Amino acid sequence: MPRTNSDLLESGINPEKIKSLWRKALVEIEIAKRKTICRICGSEIKKGQERVVTEDPDLVFIYCAFWSMKVYAHKDCYKLILDGDEQA
Prior knowledge:
- By secondary structure, the protein is α+β, with helices and mostly antiparallel strands.
- The protein has a single domain (5-83), classed as first zn-finger domain of poly(adp-ribose) polymerase-1, CATH 3.30.1740.
- It has helices spanning 5-10, 15-24, 57-62, 75-83, and strands at residues 28-31, 36-37, 44-45, 50-54, 71-74.
- A hairpin with a 6-residue loop joins strand 2 (36-37) and strand 3.
- It starts with a helix and ends in a 5-residue tail after the last helix.
- The mean pLDDT is 93.
């Protein structure tokens, strides 16, 4: 199962660090062509949903996304991180 924010928090990573990494990452918005897992909330991103994708090396490292070298999240979850409302 892919690593998500809840896994990062359980391992002792500061929520503000997670938010900071997402805020500085260069992301693209795309329509999902296949199912993936949102690294922020942990639920499924369904085919056809809008999602953000990043190849930011810090996010790839923190989420251990070495297989695809990309990190995906729901567009709405990402917006919450940017607005500071998400409890990482």
